[in-house]
Amino acid sequence: MPVKEFKLPDVGEGVAEGELVTWLVAPGDRVEEDQPVAEVETDKALVEVPSSYDGTVEELFVEEGDIVPVGDVIISFRVGEDGEGGEATAEADADSAEADADATESAADADTESASEPGTEPEPETPSGRTFAPPSARRLARELGVDIAAVDGSGPGDRISEADVRAHAEGGDGGSDTADSGSDEAPAPTPTDVGSGGRKSAVKKRGDDGATGSAATTAPAPDAPEPAGRETTLATPATRKVARELGVEVDDVPTDETRDGEAFVTGEAVRAYAEALESGESPEPEATEATEAPEAPEAPEAPEAAVVDADASAPEPGSVDASSSAGSTDETVPYRGVRRTIGKQMERSKFTAPHVTHHDTAEVDALVEAREELKPRAEEEGVKLTYMPFVMKAIVAGLKEYPSLNSELREDDEEIVLKGDYNLGVAVATDAGLMVPVVESVDEKGLFELAAEVRDLASRARERKLKPAEMKGGTFSITNFGAIGGEYATPIINYPETAILGLGAIEERPVARDGEVVAAPTLPLSLSIDHRVIDGAVAAEFANTVIEHLEHPLLLLSH
Amino acid sequence: MVVGDIATGTEVLVIGAGPGGYVAAIRAAQEGLDTTLVEKDAYGGACLNRGCIPSKALITGSGLAHEAGNAESMGIHADPAVDMGKMVEWKDGVVDRLTGGVEKLCKANGVNLIEGTASFVDEHTARVAHGGEGQGSESIEFEHAVVATGSRPIQIPGFDFAEDHVWSSAEALDADTVPDRLGIVGGGYIGMELATTYAKLGADVTVVEMLDDILDPYEDDVKRIVRTRAEELGVEFHFGEGASEWSEAADGGYLLHTETEEGEESTYGVDKVLVAVGRRPVTDGLDLGEAGIETDDRGFIETDDRTRTAVDHIHAVGDVSGEPMLAHAASKEGIVAAEVIAGEPAAMDQQAIPAAVFTDPEIGTVGLTEAEAEAEGFDPVVGEMPFNASGRAMTTGHTEGFVRIVADDETGFVLGAQIVGPEASELIAEVALAIEMGATLEDVAATVHTHPTLAEAVMEAAENARGQAIHTLNR
Ligand SMILES: Cc1cc2nc3c(=O)[nH]c(=O)nc-3n(C[C@H](O)[C@H](O)[C@H](O)COP(=O)(O)OP(=O)(O)OC[C@H]3O[C@@H](n4cnc5c(N)ncnc54)[C@H](O)[C@@H]3O)c2cc1C
Fold it and tell me: Which of the four CATH numbers 3.50.50.60, 3.40.50.2000, 3.20.20.370, 3.10.28.10 does domain B166-277 have?
């Protein structure tokens, strides 16, 4: 039964990576062709990734929350016959476990060998404080804020490599003192650990050789859980990674879950088991020695810190996690996906185009009347008529008169392109952030048509069902912050467009008419322009034209 | 908005377009910084216009003529006539191509070039006086500055460079005829390079040096080889004598007067006197004080390992910031300055800066000598390979000199090398790389080198240090 790998497809033009938000399937699940297997958030949309195969999910290669480049393998399927694939699964899994073990083993091998190279153990202080490290490693040390003189080199004569610097930097905050003095004083490691442990022992890092190892040879501590000691275990790569990081053997993790008749271990179970191991263990003097000897420079940091903590201070389960998150009420929110895209876009616009915002107000009695009149007609056609289509039409009238506001500056080509189309972007606030779907050819569409289209785009934007293409090709944008409240703002241009019109709320406000202050419905306007392309006077004239059309909606008929 | 209203502003202002300044400017621009480079004279600085490049051009030209006329043993009989004017014209062509290239590179990388003389107004402002009377000046506000104003030849009392027959290195590289008799004051590397050049061009060269040997910083066996060869070329040396004055001679030439410490006087008949007693930093007219920067007692601007002066946002690179006054050191400092300004973790953290002297034979050195290594607390081990055991050296007809490599006995780390001989300036690069990379003698010895090349001598010297040389007797 062939296993098919499936890569993250190109989910939208120009999208290079996406965040894998949710897996909709798990290993062992049956999927049909076109069934969605994952949700991926790209630049501006949440897309479902469909399977291209009928089959069973073999393995998930990325974790939820990972940023995945397009073209990376994310999942594999077993295709062909259905059902009883128990054996195959077991085999495949055993294979991958083996591969994992091998990789780790060779890494451990190399480390042990270089560290135990003859003639290098009693290293004298280098004269005049000189450190032997290539320029790249020295620079990295500065970048990571590491004093290179404090780094233990793994090369001949303790020459320092970039990997050594990294290992030091990562170990630095966990318990660098202990780590440093450990490697200075520890006797040269013997390669026997690797040999005697067989291929799987290489997977065991500190947890095994120190903690579990001692639990197996000496009498188990009272609370220490029994290692399950299975031959094979099913687990996702992510879970296996967790296990490696915590120094736990997946075969030892107790579980009741099965997949296709095989024991299945989750990341949760691995963590629980690792925690239980630690809390059950009594601090033993030899533990320090035993655990330090085979310590490779790239040894994972978390378990190391954990064990050191457990040895040195009160053995408190989970104390490491607690210390890293305790004492602060701040919350960290990832800056990626849509948020990051918006941020980048805003930054680019604001720092590229010198913005000027022009403010004015339209008195819209007539517009309010016109809409009231047309509303029932629209309803008959199943359309909810807002003011937006009127504004869009008024903008088109203004743009036709002042084409520089419907343009794009191409600095490299030293030209300003005056757009022939009137494609208006309408900013929509969504839970994930700002989206700007585009209504194309506004000049060719009727009010009702526009109303329906805006409504459709906005609701799909909120559901994050927009296609990337629907957010492209705008020539001018509108932001209706008044829908939420407020009068004036300083909108940021949807770069590379050159102008954006912000709409305040239509409300009755005091207006002076014939020497009297009266209440009248007004629409506050905030027009931001790219001053490189458009001068203030033109912006004001454009605003006048738009206002004229809003105040006299009959004029809209002429467009 | 009227653009003329805005005072010129720049993120990085670089003053001086020598190998320190133009490199800093290009890297800064590459880092995306808005960069302005001010040069008062010629792009490329001393190095390209009247230093490294012109001197190497004339050294090659004179060397070629001399070789051709002295190759009877290879069966070549020739008596080349040198047209000095033409040779200098060729040299100028080389210089023009290089300096034009510097200007193009700057522009292509988006560096704003301004011609004029810069001086500081305050910590964030400089004034640039444009060349020539009445050309006006402009103020430039900067966020960061890099001072790269270089150095100029030291003038000694009694010898005014304005005199026709008193040369600095600049004039020596621009002469259209070869003087019959050339007196050279100073046996440093510039004096020695030009002594060799002019001797090969047929001048009677007399070198007057206050110390008791040439090339002060080098080891005795290194100096001896170069001095002996110079003497073979007809250069006359007078050590322990300082030049005191010149006078006109009855024969239409001049007399170069010297004095020993004890007051003994001598005179030497010359047609030109080249004064090459060192170079001093150029900071006059810069108004460093306005920016809050002082110079040390030798006139250098002090900097830290990030090339920063006492005023953090102002950097100094190249000759103006002290020893070693070498073009490649200036360029490295320029890169570091630009990267530090751009916020990158760059620093002057190299283990060694190589140096070359283009005498006959050449000298190339990097890192520590045996004595220096000992002084630093190493237990040095040394390996040598004489060029007279190198097949390739024999086929070039130049077998003087040796490769010496110095390493730490304990660990084998390469610490330094001294090379005298053909192409020593090129050969030294390999050892520089070895030192930077933390390579050991074994690494160098076990690297396969092409045969037959001079570079094999580096490998052999490393083998020799390990007692495993094949082509020399191991010591
Ligand atoms: C004969 C000779 C041979 C040499 N041979 C070698 C060699 O083989 N190898 C080697 O490494 N080095 C050699 N050098 C040394 C080398 O030339 C210098 O180390 C190098 O040029 C220093 O570079 P720099 O950028 O610091 O300064 P410079 O090259 O001196 O450039 C400084 C520039 O700043 C300009 N400047 C000064 N003040 C101002 C101001 N106020 N405003 C605007 N511009 C200003 C100057 O006009 C000049 O162009 C030689 C020098 C000489 C004289």
Answer: 3.50.50.60
Give A428-454 pLDDT, tens digit per residue: 888 777 889 999 999 999 999 999 999
Q: In B, what residues contact A, Cβ < 8 A?
A: 1, 345-347, 349-351, 376-378, 408, 410-413, 436-438, 440
Both tokens assigned to A541: 């004239």
pLDDT classification of A126: cutoffs 50, 70, 90 = low
Q: Where in chain B is the domain with CATH 3.50.50.60?
A: 6-53+87-152+280-341, 166-277
Please list the residues that pair with B268 across neighbouring strands.
B256
As a dihedral over the C-alpha atoms of residue B54, residue B329, residue B457, residue B195, rounded to 10 degrees, the angle is 40
- pTM higher than 0.80 for the full model? no
Query: How far does chain A reach from its first CA to its final CA, in angstroms?
Result: 65
- The string of pLDDT tens digits covering residues B104-130 is 999 999 999 999 999 999 999 999 998
pLDDT tens for A26-51 read 888 888 888 888 888 776 677 778 88
Alpha carbon separation from A311 to A283, A315, B336 (Å, rounded):
5, 7, 45
Class of domain B6-53+87-152+280-341: alpha beta
The CATH number fitting domain B355-465, selected from 3.90.79.10, 3.30.390.30, 3.30.2400.10, 3.40.50.300: 3.30.390.30
pLDDT tens column, A448-495: 999 999 999 999 888 878 887 888 899 999 999 988 888 999 999 999
Q: What 3-state DSSP class applies to A5?
A: strand
| Backbone dihedral angles phi then psi of residue B187, each to the nearest 5 degrees | -105, 35
**Annotation marks residue B144 as catalytic:** no
Written as one string, the DSSP assignment of A291-349 is: HHTT--TT--HHHHHHHHHHHHS---TTHHHHHHHTT---------HHHHHHHHHHHHH
The alpha-carbon gap from A349 to the nearest alpha carbon of chain B, in Å, equals 18
Residue B354's contacts (CB-CB under 8 Å, 6 or more residues apart) are B328, B364, B365, B366, B428, B429, B431, B432
Phi then psi dihedrals of residue A250, to 5 deg: -60, -30
Average pLDDT (B266-286) is: 96
**pLDDT on residue A319:** 39
Which structural domains are found in chain A, ordered by start? Answer: 1-123+178-216 (2.40.50.100), 233-292 (4.10.320.10), 337-558 (3.30.559.10)
Ligand 1 neighbours by CB, cut-off 6 Å: B 15-21, 38-41, 45-47, 51-52, 55, 117-118, 148-151, 169, 190, 282, 285-286, 318-320, 325-328, 330, 358
What is the band of A9 on the pLDDT scale with cuts at 50, 70, 90?
confident
